[in-house]
């Protein structure tokens, strides 16, 4: 175990699934008098801290919000930079993630991003599919409402034709990754306190944790702090004790 994470130990009361809204890259860079792109670059480095921390603490599921359906409204230069960065991340990290036992999946739309990007994403999914230490899900061109709309469309398509009927209770099976457990803890950096369309169906009972720190400053210590606070929460799920 690394020094940074050792205040929080591997523990039964750890969250099983942590979802992370990495926010504040732009402000981090602008505060230093740099370009927003520098913040995104530094932010992609911080993802390594999150993954190492999760592996150290044996957190089995991590989901990261990397690009939202709303982020297309940013200047084209920034959007292009973000996708180049993602391509670079896949290229650079694939071998190490594979070696560390990390399974990578993507959620979100695949019809609006370049074919070469999708090919790279699918290669990463294929080559890590047998890994079991950590399941890492990256949300790209992801929006919770869009996911639900696509799920309803697919459900109606498949079920009405094949079986003649469908039930709204089946909706869950048509979400992008129905095999993942719901997130127990949602972390958001940069002081913003909202979900911004992230996992709005799945996070129904998640504990929410916010920090003022910008994403590029996220370390294993930040993760340990979030988990320690989570362990003090009392999750009632509607019951009275
Ligand atoms: C998060 O940082 C990264 C993405 C949303 C892609 P931001 O780019 O949102 O940074 P701020 O919030 O503008 O500082
Ligand atoms: C949420 O951050 C999206 C990602 C982290 C990918 P934003 O910076 O886009 O969210 P808003 O606009 O502040 O709600
Ligand atoms: Mg932001």
List keywords for this structure.
single chain; 241 residues; Undecaprenyl pyrophosphate synthetase; globular; binds 3-methylbut-3-enyl trihydrogen diphosphate
Structure description:
There is one protein chain. The protein is of the alpha/beta class. The protein has 6 helices and 6 strands. The chain has helices spanning 25-31, 36-56, 76-99, 115-127, 144-163, 220-232, and strands at residues 17-21, 61-68, 102-107, 134-142, 185-188, 207-210. Helix 3 packs parallel to helix 4. The longest helix is centred in the middle third of the chain and has 24 residues, at 76-99. The model is unreliable at 1-7 (pLDDT under 50). The structure holds 3-methylbut-3-enyl trihydrogen diphosphate (IPE) (2 copies) and magnesium ion. Residues 21-23, 65-68, 71, 192, 194, 196 line the site of one 3-methylbut-3-enyl trihydrogen diphosphate (IPE).
Mean pLDDT: 94
Number of strands: 6
What would the CATH topology be? Undecaprenyl pyrophosphate synthetase
Q: Span from first to last CA?
A: 35 Å
CA radius of gyration? 18 Å
SSE pattern, N- to C-terminal: EHHEHEHEHEEH
Number of domains: 1
Q: What is the fourth-level CATH superfamily?
A: Decaprenyl diphosphate synthase-like
pLDDT < 50 stretches: 1-7
Helix content: 40-55%
Q: Any ligands, ions or cofactors bound here, and which?
A: 3-methylbut-3-enyl trihydrogen diphosphate, magnesium ion
> How large is the share of residues in beta strands?
5-15%
Widest sheet: strand ordering:
3-4-2-1-5-6
């Amino acid at each position: 175990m690394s020094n940074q994470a050792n205040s929080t130990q591997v523990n039964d009361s750890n969250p099983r699934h942590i979802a992370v809204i990495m926010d504040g890259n732009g402000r981090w860079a602008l505060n230093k008098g740099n370009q927003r792109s520098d913040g995104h670059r530094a932010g992609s480095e911080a993802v390594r801290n999150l993954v190492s921390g999760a592996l150290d603490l044996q957190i089995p599921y991590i989901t990261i919000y990397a690009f939202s359906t709303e982020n297309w409204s940013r200047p084209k230069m920034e959007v292009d930079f973000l996708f180049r960065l993602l391509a670079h991340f896949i290229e650079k990290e694939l071998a190490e993630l594979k070696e560390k036992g990390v399974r990578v999946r993507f959620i979100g739309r695949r019809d609006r991003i370049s074919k070469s990007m999708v090919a790279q994403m699918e290669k990463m999914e294929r080559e890590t599919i047998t890994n079991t230490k950590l399941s890492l899900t990256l949300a790209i061109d992801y929006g919770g409402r869009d996911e639900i709309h696509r799920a309803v469309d697919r459900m109606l398509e498949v079920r009405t034709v094949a079986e003649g009927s469908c039930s709204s209770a089946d909706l869950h099976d048509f979400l992008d990754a129905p095999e993942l457990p719901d997130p127990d803890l949602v972390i958001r950096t940069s002081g913003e306190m909202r979900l911004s369309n992230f996992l709005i169906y799945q996070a129904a009972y998640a504990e929410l944790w916010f920090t003022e720190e910008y994403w590029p400053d996220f370390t294993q210590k930040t993760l340990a702090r979030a988990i320690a606070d989570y362990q003090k929460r009392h999750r009632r799920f509607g019951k009275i004790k």
